[in-house]
Specification:
The chain is elongated and about 55 Å long. Strands 1-8-3-6 form a 4-stranded antiparallel beta sheet. Helix 1 runs antiparallel to helix 2 and helix 3 crosses helix 4. Helix content is 32%, strand content 26%. A hairpin with a 2-residue loop joins strand 11 and strand 12. The N terminus is likely disordered. The chain has 2 domains: 118 residues, Jelly Rolls, CATH 2.60.120.10; 79 residues, Winged helix-like DNA-binding domain superfamily/Winged helix DNA-binding domain (Arc Repressor Mutant, subunit A, Orthogonal Bundle). With 207 residues, it is of the alpha+beta class.
Length: 207
């Protein structure tokens, strides 16, 4: 999350609306009429590979601006989907002034840094390391909460983990079973519980 950006005043008028979990905001090819800012929840941007697989491109947290194609009048290139229930505001790009544009640019700069880190976790190491790295990342987003035992519980399916690690659901399911057998995680319906965060972080770093 970009600290402070979500509390700053934006000059251009905006319209706030709610998205349900798994609800899409826009699809590839849609007209881009608004720039958006996340107020609550977690949004992800995905694209389809030539092989027909969904690949997660970036995550959008509270305070993040996205939909920047609207600044150039370009069609949407990717799909935007809510991973949790979310609150988003839509901004008319024609009403954005210089100060507003600076805020958007700064947000996109921070996102670019996150994206570079994300690309690293997609490409570096074996799938075990990539899955561990992605779980640690998701544990710091609105997808995570604390259960009654004080453990971090991430609302994530095997399919979501596969799309976030450039892998297949079958391969990720095998890794999840291994990590559960080793006592690093526990899993239930649409949830991954991080049982041993320290060991999982070490695995994420390749140790």
């Amino acid at each position: 999350m970009l600290k402070g950006i979500d509390t700053e005043t934006f000059s251009a008028p905006s319209q706030s609306f709610r998205l349900n979990r798994k609800q899409s905001l826009f699809h590839p090819g849609d007209l881009s009429q608004s720039v958006f800012r996340v107020q609550k929840g977690l949004i992800r941007i995905t694209k389809m590979t030539p092989e027909g697989r969904t690949l997660t491109v970036r995550h959008l947290e509270p305070g993040d601006f996205f939909g920047e194609e609207a600044l150039n009048g370009e069609a949407r290139a990717d799909l935007a989907e809510a991973l949790t229930s979310a609150q988003v505001e839509a901004i008319n790009p024609d009403l954005i002034n210089g100060t507003d544009l600076f805020m958007i640019t700064r947000s996109l700069s921070f996102q670019m840094k996150r994206l570079m880190d994300y690309e690293y976790h997609l490409q570096a190491g074996e799938l075990r390391e990539r899955v561990a790295r992605y779980l640690i990342q998701l544990s710091k987003t609105p997808l995570a909460n604390i259960n009654e035992k004080g453990q971090i519980m991430v609302s994530a399916t095997h399919e979501l983990l596969a799309e976030g690690t450039a892998s297949t659901r079958e391969s990720v399911s095998k890794i999840v079973s291994e990590l559960r057998f080793e006592g690093l995680i526990d899993s239930g319906y649409r949830n991954i519980i991080i049982v041993n965060k320290e060991e999982l972080e070490m695995m994420a770093e390749g140790f």
